[in-house]
Each structure stands twice: as C-alpha cells, then as structure tokens.
Amino acid sequence: MDAPEQSFLREKSLAVEDQELAVGTLEDSHAAKPETDAAIQLPNKSKPDKSAVEKDREDFREAVVKTLDRLLFVHKSFDIYRGVAGLYDFGPHGRTVELNVLSLWRKCFVDEEDMMEVACTALTPEAVFNASGHVKNFTDLMVKDEVDGAFHRADHLVKSYCENRKKDPTISAENAAELDKVIAHVEDLSAEELGGVWNHCSSHEESTFSSSSPLQLDVSNFLWSKCYLRPETAQGSFCNFKDYYNLNGRKLPFAVAQVGRVFRNEISPRQGLLRTREFTLAEIEHFVHPEHKSHSKFSDVAKLEFLMFPREEQEKPGQFAKRLCLGEAVAKVSVFVIIFAYLLFDKKKKLILISTTENVLGHVNSETLGYFIGRVYLFLIRLGIDKERLRFRHHLANEMAHYATDCWDAEIECSYGWIECVGIADRSDYDLRAHSEKSGHALVAQEKLAEPIEVEKLAITPEMKELGPAFKGNQKNVVEALEVD
Amino acid sequence: MDAPEQSFLREKSLAVEDQELAVGTLEDSHAAKPETDAAIQLPNKSKPDKSAVEKDREDFREAVVKTLDRLLFVHKSFDIYRGVAGLYDFGPHGRTVELNVLSLWRKCFVDEEDMMEVACTALTPEAVFNASGHVKNFTDLMVKDEVDGAFHRADHLVKSYCENRKKDPTISAENAAELDKVIAHVEDLSAEELGGVWNHCSSHEESTFSSSSPLQLDVSNFLWSKCYLRPETAQGSFCNFKDYYNLNGRKLPFAVAQVGRVFRNEISPRQGLLRTREFTLAEIEHFVHPEHKSHSKFSDVAKLEFLMFPREEQEKPGQFAKRLCLGEAVAKVSVFVIIFAYLLFDKKKKLILISTTENVLGHVNSETLGYFIGRVYLFLIRLGIDKERLRFRHHLANEMAHYATDCWDAEIECSYGWIECVGIADRSDYDLRAHSEKSGHALVAQEKLAEPIEVEKLAITPEMKELGPAFKGNQKNVVEALEVD
C-alpha cells in the first residue's frame, strides 16, 4: 500500500469512527429519531468506495501473508507434497508467538482465576458425540462439483445463488424480497430442508454440481472402536465433570481449562488461518449453580468501557457497536437474556472460555458472563489488540450452535472484516444433561440445604391379602403398576 | 507392601546391585574368565524368588495406579462410557507434572542448545507416510479372536505360544531349541513370513482366533484427502527441512524441536501408560554434516559416568549394564558403529531427540551422539530419576525401526522392569532421501568448498553435418541418445 493511499484510508476510517461515536452518543442521550437517523446516514457518505477499500485490504493482506510465509511464522503443511488445504505449520517465530499467547492465557485465566487445567484425549469414542449432538447437528450438507471434484457447503451455495439472482435487474420486487428471506434463514434449515432449497436453486441454472449428500464431521475409523477427532476440547471436561467436582470438594463454582489440538472437517477451508482443519484451542468450562450466577469479583470489571453490539441493535438497519460501561451493559442486557461465558481467540490459537450451568431456571443474573467478558477484554488488550478494533457482539438467534442458549463473540476487525476470535456461550445444562442420559451416570452437583424441606407425599401400600383373591394370577403385575410413581 | 517385605526386597536388591558392580569391576580390570563367570553366577543365587518379587511389584503398582486415579493425576478417558483401551486423561495434578516436565525439557534442549521449536499438524497426507516407510513397515499382522472380538498382534501370539510349548516337560531338547530360535527371530519376520509361522502354530491347538490379516496403522479417512494421524512428529520436520535450513542461514548443524500429540493404533494396549493410543511426544531432529560429527561442546559431558549396556555385552549371557565414563565409552563404541541421537521420555510424555544426517559415509566419529546421551542423562537426573535405575542400552540389530541405522535407549527401571523412556537413533539420511525421491524436492544441504575442485569430463559434441547424411530421418534420435550422460 502506498503512503498517500494509506493516509486517505486512515482519514476516511477515522471519519467513519467519529461518526459512529456521534451516533452512539446521540442514541445514549435518547436523541429524537430523525436526528439519529441523519447521523447514521452520514458515515455512508464519507465512506470511501467499497471495492477500492477491499482491493487495498487484499493487497495488504497478501503482502503480510507472503512475509509470514517467507519468515516461517506460518506456512502450508507438507508443501513438498503440495500440502492439504486447511493445514498450516508454525515455524520457529510462529511457535514462539503461540507459546507466548498461551502463557499469557494461562496466567490470566488458569493462575489468576485458580482454575483446574486438564488434558483429555483428542480421540473420542462415537458415543460421546452422539450424546453431545455433534454428529446430528454438525452434519453439513455438501455438494460435489462433478467437474473438479471439489466439495462445497450447500448453505454457502444457496446464499451465493440468491445473491447473484438479486443482481439481475429484471427481477421483481417480490422475488427479491423472497431471496432476501432465503438468505436470512438458510442457517435455520435442517439438512433435509436445505437439500430441497438447493435442488430448487440448482434446477434454475446450468450446474456442474451433483446433488447434495450429508457429510459426517471429524470421523476417524479405528479398527478397535469408532472414534471421532474432537472439534472442541469441552466434551472431555463434561464427561469428567463428576471427577472434577469431587476433586473440588463438591463445591460450585469451579472452572476446568484445556489447551489442545482440535480437528474440523471443513469442506472448503478458506481465509488462511480463519478456517483450518486442525488448530490449537484453549477452552474453559466454568460450572456454576444455576440459581447463583452472581460473581464475587464482578466489581473488579464493572467500570470497564468498550465496544459492545447487542442483538437488538444489530436487528435495526444502519447500527454500529457502541461504547458501553460493562456494569451498565450487564444490567441492561440481562433484561432479555440469560448469558454465559464461552471464549475463543483466533481460529488457529483459539482461546475459549465456556460457562455451563447444571440447570438454567430462567434467572437473569449475568454477573458471571459480565465478569468473563471483562476478563477477556483485559486479556486481549494485554495481548496487544487495538481496543478500537475490538467489539463484543451478541449472536443472533439463528447463529448459535445447537448446544448454546446464548452466545457473545469477541470480534476483532482485520483485513477480513470483523472476525470472531473469542466466543462466550451459555451452554446451560445441555451437555451435562445429554451425557447423563446417554451414559447412565448422573453428572449433577449436590447442595446441602440450611433447612430440611418437608414434603407431603401420597404413597400407595398394596394390601396383598386383598389383591390376591381379587386379581389371582395378575396380582404381581398390579403391584408393580401401583409402585410406579 | 508391608514394611518387612519392603526391607527384604531392598536388601536383596542391594545385594544384586553390589554383585553387579563387582562383576563390572572384574570385567573392567580384565579379570580371568572363570573369576568373572563365578561372580556372574552369584547374583542369581542371592536373587529372591522371582514370582514373589513380581507379585510384590504388581501389588505396589496397583496401589500406585489406584492413588493416581483417585487423585486424578491420570485416569481412563471417557470412563462414563466405559472408555476406550489405551486412552488416558491427565487431571489437574497430572497436567501440572506434564507442563513442568515439558518446561524443563524446553529449558534443557530448546533454550540451552538454541534449537528451533516448531509445530506441525498431526493430520498428515498419505504420501508422507508412504515415502517414510511407515505404511509398509508398521503394518502389524493382527489376529482376531472370534469369541470376544478382541484383536491381538500375531508376533505376540507366536511368542506366547512358543513359551507355553516350552513348559511342556515331554518336549525334546531339539524342539525346545527350535522354539527359542522362533522367539529370538519373530521380530525379523516379514508380515508374510509371520503369517506362515502363526498358521503353523495355531494349527497345533484349539483356537478361537481367525486367520491373520494386516492392519494399517493410524489411518484416518477424511473425505477431502486420505490422511493419517502422525505416530511421531518427526516427519513434519523432515518435510520442512529445506525451509528450516534456509532460515538457519544454510548452515549445519542445527536442530528442530517439536512437542505434540501423536497417535498409535495399538492393537492391544497394555501396561497402563506404557502403550497408549494417544500421547504427547517431545522430539528433536538434529541435522549434521555427515563428515563432521564431532561436537564442539562434547568436553562438557565427556567426564560423566553412568550405567551403559553396549550391544556386545547384551549378547553374552549373564551380563549387566556397567558404569562407564561417557568420553571413554564413545571412543570404545565408535569402533563398531556410527551412532546418532534420538531420545524418548516415557510413552505418555515422551521426549525424543533425533539426529539425522544428510548422508552417512561410514565415519565413526560419534561425539554428537555422545553429547546428546550426556545431555539426556543430565536432563533425566534433574527431573529426579534415580541414577541407579537409569541405564543407556544399545539396541540389538533386530530391534531397530526400519529408518534407524543405530539406536540407543535410555531405560528406567520401574515396576514393569527396565523400560525405554528416551530413544536415541541415527536415522542417517533415510527420511530426507525418501522424501526427496517421492516429492521431487531435493532436501539437501550445500557446502561451499574452500578450493574449487577441478574435474576432467569427457563430452560428446555431435557434428550435425556428418550425422545428417549418415542417419537421415533418425538423426534427431541419435543426437538425443548421444546427449544422455
């Protein structure tokens, strides 16, 4: 990038940011709607031509990627054999950066928050992912290109088909609205529904794609037992919950941290390190009592101010992330959701902080979420992330994984736009309940009540000497039926 | 174990050790053969009843394993689903121990020896292990038990069959000798030969085993490309050799270190952590000029004295490891082998130091091996290993992996006996040559000579005007044939 271009972009970018701040301030001060709307329009006028910005970003990124490759920070794995898409190695400098990031993560979370760090295996028996719902829910529908043999995700193809169709100037307003609806809801569709939509789309145009078929994620067939390679480290922590709980003196809350390699069967890896088939994930499961989600150290972070992007703001057109005080945001946010913590950092050296509860009863106390959002913010700032390029965005309802009842992402603005690098999810009791049911081991915590609770219970005591003559041979069945609660 | 039993065992054990030292001293002083032989016999007399010692070891081990399990140092993975044989998790204490061991390893090797630490992927395309010989050579012949569905390695079954047969009192001396021969050479057999031997063995007795069939190691089928899970981290370092060499300013020697999870498709995992299907491996590849294997820091370790067990000592009956001075041992050992460095520490948190050379020319300078044996000794002692229970044993010729031209193991005596925990192998140019041939990329180092070497070369210069009339239409083929070296 030339210096004049850079300064032009920087200027425009600052103008946009100033305008965003102005909008935020107006909204915070409850300005009249027309005034706010006018301010929202302004940034669009001062924005430089989108395609020029994008081209510039791409050139800049290409230069950075080439340098990182040349200096072996990160480079394609097994390049002498032309590599495999989505696999990257860290050279000496890259590995050093990774070790430093992990060391800071360990200090900020494991040490300072007194967590248990454990290490489970990547190989995971099939039963675990059947119970967790990964096998059923992460079965991406894929489509094979019969010409070049490449695989593509059906939802991506449907989206791109709809976006291309919309560019047709002859299309009716009604059809355009329908296409918008498909784009907005494609992620809500089941595999079967998606297959139907794709068949409909592909019948409209010349296509080299074969019909769609489901793809199992992360499967690794070992002779001795069907195993998967884990796509997250969390399931090991969930399966061992009872052991960790006992080791913690049967007290809640406590947190279990893991760092390790995870594997994802990406159909078409892209965007460099953002979608890879193998990467290091740093995860935390924070287990809390479902009725006691306040956090004793929340006041340490309550006064932090940074960019947040709540769900209801995203649903209005032309809105931006706003600088909010965490303490106030938590009070505000908690009115409409129960939120918990699940953090990721970067697809390659991903840091995750997950909070799960044994049972979610609908309480709206989200100090625990707020606390971990604050800790993640402090961690990322200490890592050197520019606070103007960091925001916490609330997931929309149709974005969340099957196990999440709520999710916030820490997003960093880079040459690919705003990219999720830490995820904060409330998994509620989804995983513990699923494994309890499928394994037959109750993964629950126990609580000693200050006062015993007395409950009156109606019970049936069969009078055998009456039942005998009345039911004869069926007496036993009758007694059994009566004993069922 | 009761206190009196313990003290009895300790006494006997000390007596054995004293006797071993006495034998060593006699041998060192070149005592007459009968005197040495008599000393060798003595330890056998003072040894306590073998089965009592073994029972005691087993009880002790069981108690330790139970404690480690209860305190979550290490425990079966996915136990709520009854687990998978050969998969273990580290709980908080175990993970802390692992991190401390890796941290000391990083300090002793990566930092103090100025190595490059890198991180390659565990997923590895098939072409890599075809080239490295793993697919062909680590294809264990296995046998399925038709009754319980369990798999067993054919070589283990053959050994156990022969050992059982030998217990038959009616067996002839000739047959017993034959069985001994089979036991000694079962590891030399090809899969086909082994299959023949097993069929012969199994035809002699009632057996529920089906016939043997080969088992591929570590295979994981991904839709997009056939990949294996690495059984060692080394292949990534070999494939990237040229990049690391360039980054090092095209200078030899240099070393590449890696720590990461590796996977082995053990047919029947056993002995707790000693044979697992997934574990962390710490490996070092030390690349040296094949003609300059001296080591500039060898004098730092030359005066160390510890137990060594050379190959020729193992081949004589009744021999033991002897305390040798490393500097003298290297001089002695180098008379008959070229030795290089490949270190492992414990099957679970295995540390490996591998040295490879671009080309082995048969020189006998093994200072580099000696240096790394010394460094490994110092590392293990700093880790807290009892030096009386640590020895360096030379591999016998039929023990070595297909890629090794020589191998020494650091062995630690534990409740399972003397167990390999660090391996030191000379892989010569095996891997670099194999990948050069299969990939078409020359993985070689270049050397600038002080003086140019002048070579006289006979060359053919075709005289076109003579060839034309003589060969007419075939002129072109003749010229091409002449130009081939």
Automatic annotation (TrEMBL), chains A, B:
Domain spans labelled Aminoacyl-transfer RNA synthetases class-II family profile: 228-413
Cellular component terms (Gene Ontology): cytoplasm
Key words, A-Z: Aminoacyl-tRNA synthetase, ATP-binding, Ligase, Nucleotide-binding
Annotated stretches, region: Disordered: 25-54
InterPro entries: aa-tRNA-synt_IIb, aa-tRNA-synth_II, aa-tRNA-synth_II/BPL/LPL, Gly-tRNA_synthase/POLG2, tRNA-synt_gly
Pfam families (alphabetical): tRNA-synt_2b
Gene3D superfamilies per record: Bira Bifunctional Protein, Domain 2
A biological-process GO annotation: glycyl-tRNA aminoacylation
Top enzyme category: ligase
Compositionally biased region (Basic and acidic residues): 27-36
GO MF terms, alphabetically ordered: ATP binding; glycine-tRNA ligase activity
EC number: 6.1.1.14
Protein name (Swiss-Prot/TrEMBL): glycine--tRNA ligase
Organism the protein comes from: Arabidopsis thaliana (Mouse-ear cress)
